[in-house]
Amino acid sequence: MTLSFGISSLPGDDNTEALLDGLAEQGHTHLELAFTKGFPWKPSQCESFGALASGRGLALSVHAPYFAMLTIAEPDRYQKTRAAVEHSMKLAASLGASIVVVHPGHDKDRTSDQLLATATEALRSIEPKVVELGVSLGLETTGTTNAFGTLGDIALLAAEFPWVRPVVDWAHVHATTDGRLVDLEAVRSVYSFLFDQFPAWKLQPLHTHYSHNAFGPGGEIKHVAYGQGSNPVEPVVTAAVEFDVDLTMVSESRDDVSHHAVWTDVVKALRAAVVDETGARPLGSGAVAFPNPLMVVSEAGNYRATRLRRPLRITNPDKPFFADGYTKGDLIQYYASIAPQLLPHLQDRAIVMARFPDGADGDFFYEKQAPTHKPDWMPVAPIHSEVRGGAIEFCTAPDRPSLMWFANMGCIEIHPWLSRVQSIGFPDFAIFDLDPAEGASWEQVVDTALHIKVALDSLGLRGYPKTSGATGLHIYVPLDPVHEYGRVRRFVETVGRLMEAADPSNVTMEWDIPKRTGKVFIDHNQNVGGKTIASVYAVRPFPGAPVSTPLSWDEVGTLTPDLFTISTIWDRVAEVGDLFAPVLSGGQTLDEAETALGLGASS
Asked: Which tens digits make up the pLDDT trace of 253-263?
């Protein structure tokens, strides 16, 4: 568990650097810019401020204007309110901020279903304009009973939009529950609800606001100085440690004295709740500077992580797993550290494990059926198999401990299904797998990928490239889950045949392997139900422990797969975030593309 603490403020031109320096000197690592009354800064000013904050180790978030809401239905107002949400997210992108906080809105005597429908329509309308910004929209819990935005409301919206997350305002929850957040058990119940209603990756980190407030029967009345309210901060911190939640806490107090007092009590609570790591040692070998490294303690001949929400036995962490010295512990630690970026792409997907019990150079096998010794806390996805004549229970990856369990099983590569368990026959994306045969160069792979991009652009489709982690490229075309596998496969094959016809000296779809020599093979048969491909951010079993990494199209011709390994990917993730996040939102069908290609609608 890590905690990032900061304040909500809007610095003026005359105190910008002084404010940032002061926050850093106090040990704060976060600043939320209170754009609550409007947009005082232009994008260029945001870029400059973002650079100043980054240089001092301060992460940023943005609180959108109060008029930026999702439930306004009046025609003369809803365009303005949605545009304000969109503009806030664009300014956040200029700042390098990760999240924009928005109040969902008021009810105006409408039912919950009506409010949810309006908010959903609002998010759909702005999604195409913000989905590629790399910024999350944080919906803040309501502070009054006549407003939309309970954790249940937010969970329904977050379930549909991958880029939407909850923001817990502890003062608001305290007010709307009649002042019940007074002890550890009450706060635990909030965390329990969060883990019941939201995917674990949407809670890492969990963005929160904290202050003391006065409240009445209708909810919050006003913020008050720290010490004058009744909701203590210590249980919030203690429960976060217990639940292994990475917490961002923004003090919304109205005075510096209160900010300082909150921070003092947060530090005390962290020290009191610290996990006993007597006799602990690092999980990894020390060869890689992983973010948020875990410690393990010896236990009954094996090891146990000291700060993990789930019980997990770790075996042989020092076993060499890659030719250049990386260990099994390094592999486990990699998947623990990359979890925030990887877990969204595994949500609700059956996982096929590529297991290498003796490391990358040893024998391997694929395992579909969940082993009987899997942890009790890991959910499975039963999927009917015609071959077996019954269901195969696949493992799933809902949280960080599950990723660590896969790695502990010697699973170097993680292979998710292309479709989710709720729509198992309908993939969420089409995949162009570009595999250079013997004698083919990386330049040929790049040329083929760029030609496919031209084809996709002409068909009105967005595609997103990633390195395979070996020598090839994968191009994902996000789709709404409405087409059967056969139809998706036919589309990829049709485009592939066009590439082959246009550039026969460099591109092939020949199944006879010797006939592929010197060419790039487009494998359309990756788009088959039950057939899987190494996930984005998966490690590959080759020297250097390379990682399948998203690229922007501008980078396809300039970056090579060998640049991204379990050791080198961290600066990139910190700089660009998850370039594959837009794949999660779908938003496309093949209908118009099929018409343009002269294909019928049937599979």
From this structure: 989 999 999 99
